[in-house]
Design a protein that fits this description.
The protein has one helix spanning about 55-70, and strands spanning about 5-10, 15-20, 25-35, 35-45. By secondary structure, it is α+β, with helices and mostly antiparallel strands.
Length: about 70
């Protein structure tokens, strides 16, 4: 849905996938389960590293992805 992450960090048992939009960053924390990775936590922050509501940031990431795939 979000495409390839901009950053992947593996710290067993978790993986951090990071996505960026122009004004925010979303970190997805995934954990390995028997049937694949499962999202257990997410965090969104502004470019100034202030915690922000995740939904608008996720929407901005999706919008920037859609914009880049239609360009």
């Amino acid at each position: 849905l979000f495409g390839p992450p901009r950053l992947v960090r593996r710290d067993a048992p978790a993986e951090l996938w990071q996505y960026r939009a122009s004004d925010c960053v979303v970190d997805l924390f995934l954990y390995q389960e028997k049937d694949g990775l499962r999202l257990l936590y997410l965090e969104a922050r502004t470019g100034a590293a202030q915690v922000t509501a995740p939904r608008p940031c996720l929407e901005a990431v999706l919008a920037s992805r859609e914009k880049s795939t239609t360009s």
